[in-house]
Amino acid sequence: MSKRVIKGERIKTIIHNIAEDFRFSGEMGDYPLLFYKADTEGVIRGGEIDQMIEYLSTGLKELQDNIQWRREFLSENPGIDEMRMLESLSVIEKEYIELLEFLG
To answer: What is the pTM of this model?
Structure first.
């Protein structure tokens, strides 16, 4: 069984940020639990790697291609102006790419 030990601070921070986003929204599905576990244990094992890659790949595609996702992001975060939103989305995009590279 393959596994990824999360040693680098940057990857730890990215996983923690994603887990915190799920905590903030109160989500408790499979993907949130996957990130909660990785955040707590510092290890991603076997099928968890594939699940995380699936989540990140889908999220990255939506982030890059879907204007509706941006509208939803703005409606869920009304205190964020459009420029700040675009900056936030850019950060998320970079983090997803970095995490995908780590998992791959």
So the answer is: 0.77
